[in-house]
Amino acid sequence: MPGRTSVHAVIFALGFASVILQSVLIREMLVVFYGNELIIGVILGAWLMWIGIGARLGAPASGGKHAHALFISSLFLFAAAPFIQLLLVRNLRSILHVPPGEQAPLIPTIVFSVLLLSVPSFLIGFTFPLANALFKNRGHADARDIGRLYIVESAGFLLGGLVFTFIIVTRLDSFSALMVSVSFLMVSIFVPRALISGRPYMTLIPLLLIASFFFLTNPFLKKLDRKTEIARWKSINPGILFLNSVNSEYKNLVLASLAGEYILYGNGQYLFSFPDPFTYSKNANFILSEHTDPESALILGDGAFDLPCEMLRYPVKRVDYVLLDKKLLALLKPHLPAETIDCISDRRMKIHFSDGRLFVNTTDKKYDVVHVDAKNPTTAATNRYFTTGFFRETSRVLTPDGVFSVGITASENLLFSEAGDQTSSLYRSLKQIFPHVVAIPGETNQYFSSLSPGVVTDDVATLTARRLAGNPDTRTFHPSLFESLVQPYRIPHLMESLRKKENVRINTDTNPVVYFYNLLFWLAGIESWTHARIRIVPALKWINLHGGAAFLSALAFLLISCLLWSVRHGTDSRGRRRFNALVSIFICGASAMSLELVVLFGYQNLLGVLYQKIALITGVFMMGISSGGAAANVVLKKRSATPYLGIAAHAAFAAAALAAAPVFSLTSSGWLAEKLWASQSVFYCYVLFCGALTGWLFPVACSLHLTPGGKPAATAGLVDSLDHVGASLGAFISGAILIPVLGVSATGGLIAVTNSAAAVLWAAHIFLSSRSPRSHDTGYKT
């Protein structure tokens, strides 16, 4: 039978391997899902659901004589499953028969994700009560031991998050990353046993075997990674030649070629192609002609160097080009034309490797023109360039007669659909900050905004005169093209459609409705797929209008039901306490995961680096769990667990939820956004605090549920199960509905109300126990 130290080592390694597997799968699914962060909520929800199911089924299995064998076999099965999962993800589009270039349908993707994550996440939950059973067989287990295992697993999560973020993410491919985590798990199984046996020299044998296996399989894994990556590419764009791929801190980048043009894709989504002198010459001249006499320009882009190069044909004095990803330039540079290389070396152009929004927040320069060269807000990462918060920040770096330029893909026949909602919301959001906005229709609706009158214009003659005055050279762009670019006859129709959409909401950092409208447009396209005729879009629209009241009504109904149950069992204080402990841990799991997703969206909104930092944020959250669990164990060692500890935890959760929107807003703009270390510190402290609350409540709930003479392994399985099922529900609802549909403020409010209801439930328990002559139950010392 393994000792306490060896079990702790294995659970620690399991946490380490879990966060690496989770992060790898999220990154891979983001590529399949074109970078849409909605898939993060789906994956986390499915992951946690299976852990909850595994923990619930592991509880009865932990009481058998084969607990040790089940524990070890589960670990080996967990070690093998990730490689099969990765192969399935790389071939997801082929499995679902998704046509090339189309978005993977939502419902099949959710079903696929739930099935895909079943084995490893089930095993994580299944091994937890088994580990507690191994303690029991040695006569050690109690509620605090359950908390200790929870702490150890969380510490493994933290280490895995740090290793993934700072070492693995840019140095290893996905298969090699999984091999690192599996090797660490194997070491934890064999090495501690040899150390405990009193023969430390025996550790050399498993270490040598594991290291040999790692290095021998590494070349094969690299070939497999390349082969499956090409297979995934062919399922997305079969007619385009795959050239190279790289994983940066921010996204998966693929460079491809078609008919002499190079095409760059980020997370499976088209970014730009080059060389394309006509398109970029047209755009550059249009943007600069909206200003009376541009001398400086700021471009926030994805790496299309042709645009700033075309601007340099004007007599501008300075063009600052903000590029997020250094690896993007390294990937493109061998294929850039000599003319572009010369342009990059032009003394008037300076490339800044930074996040565009962060650069705007921190620069002290002023610009005549600021242009956002970003794709449609199909993700939270791109939506951050279409909010009133960003527009306000941009207005600060404009000269008094400066021009802000941004565009959104549109089509005239879609103006009165969900796509029209999206472009109308953008127009209304711009009008909140800029009093003068000109909308130019086309395949991309272009919006030019200014704080001063008489600058932006849709008059063809004015644009022609400015172009000739600023750059009389007509070889690359003739001013007569303005007639076809502006299309004056289409402007009244566009403006009419924008004004008619009166119920369209403003797009803000805390309520990303443009992202939501894009989600509706996408879902509208796949509704025909569902044979059950699930009306997804009307349902989300209804939630958008009435969701807050609906969720509050549902919470009130559940609270009243729980209170009635408590009154009915007024003399059964012990049963009521056990029931309330399970309700508490369920709400705790749902609240913690919802707040973690709020933080993930907030971090993405501030820095746009979620692709790299998701493992670190998760690791910090788990570190909070470790510290909170340790603090609770210290308290439980000195005194009995009482309902008052649960009330305090839920009150703190409610306060943290109400603070979500202010934290989101403060780090998005103002002094905190300007000081990167300060904004990141606030984020990580907030994550740490939410994790600490979760860690605190877990051993407290176990202690309140566990009765004298009870079975700790059974309690561990049940409490761990409900914790993860609640977290699963929180991930699904918050990631897919609450945050994108209702926004951060409403999500935080609902979480606060839910935790307040849990506190009321415990208060009712204390009141009923005090009035019962047969029982005055406040908890048991464990």
Question: What can you tell me about this protein's structure?
Answer:
By secondary structure, the protein is of the alpha/beta class. 67% of the residues lie in helices and 9% in strands. It has 30 helices and 11 strands. The strands form 2 sheets. It has a 7-stranded mixed sheet. Strands 1-2-3-4 form a 4-stranded antiparallel sheet, sandwiched between helices. α1 runs parallel beside α3 and α2 (38-61) runs parallel beside α6 (118-137). The longest helix is centred in the C-terminal third of the chain and has 35 residues, at 573-607. Residues 137-141, 527-534 and 778-782 have low confidence and may be disordered.
Span between termini: 25 Å
Task: Tell me the number of helical segments per DSSP (H or I, 4 or more residues long).
Answer: 30
Number of strands: 11
Spatially, the strands of the biggest sheet line up as 7-6-5-8-9-11-10
State mean pLDDT (0 to 100 scale): 80
* Shape, per Cα inertia axes: globular
Write the layout of secondary structure elements.
Blueprint: H1 4-32, H2 38-61, H3 67-90, H4 92-95, H5 106-116, H6 118-137, H7 143-171, H8 174-196, H9 204-236, E1 241-247, E2 252-258, E3 261-266, E4 269-274, H10 277-289, E5 296-301, H11 306-311, E6 318-323, H12 326-332, H13 338-344, E7 349-353, H14 356-362, E8 367-372, H15 380-383, H16 388-397, E9 398-409, H17 418-433, E10 436-440, E11 444-450, H18 460-470, H19 482-486, H20 491-500, H21 513-526, H22 536-568, H23 573-607, H24 610-638, H25 643-658, H26 660-668, H27 671-674, H28 676-705, H29 712-742, H30 744-771
Parallel strand pairs: 5-6, 5-8, 6-7, 8-9
Antiparallel strand pairs: 1-2, 2-3, 3-4, 9-11, 10-11
